[in-house]
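Case study 2.
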Amino acid sequence: MSKTGGSRIEKELSDLPGSVLSKAQIRALLSTKPPLIENLIDLNTQLQPNGVDLTVQHIEKIVSAGCVDFSNKDRKLSETEELDFNLGRVFLSPGAYKVLFNEVVHLPKDIMAIGAPRTTLIRCGVTIETGFWDAGYEGRSESLLIVANEKGFYVKKNARILQLVFIKLAKVVSTGYKGIYQSENI
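Prediction:
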């Protein structure tokens, strides 16, 4: 097959609904207005073959109960206390923590994202939980960091802890994300 035929096929495949964006596609979307992601610490380090690594801005300990219901009338977020980085790192005892990322995400209305922990966390008895990033969402996201390791875990400021993978939708959504977390933390 000729190089021209291969390029045409690659282009067609990259435009298929449900396809994961490649490094080249992500790089191209970083130069749009607004960019797919801003406030990257080091593009060459954070850009992966199939996503972008998000980094830790700060970590908060969860200190109270929260509440969720069907209508959100009684929704109550848990209170938190920000932890201090001592000499550029923080020690986390086993438990649940909220992480705020450095990066701000701007999803177009034809792309959604899914986050997963970097495997180093898993190998250390730590994981990160997150919801889906809906098409049209923008903000500086928060996720749940769970330390299951009974010996605890150290996190350095700006550590790469989550890989965000971008998925092309079948079509542009008409309204995009409109929830209370739109434009959060920016």
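Confidence is low (pLDDT under 50) at residues 1-5.
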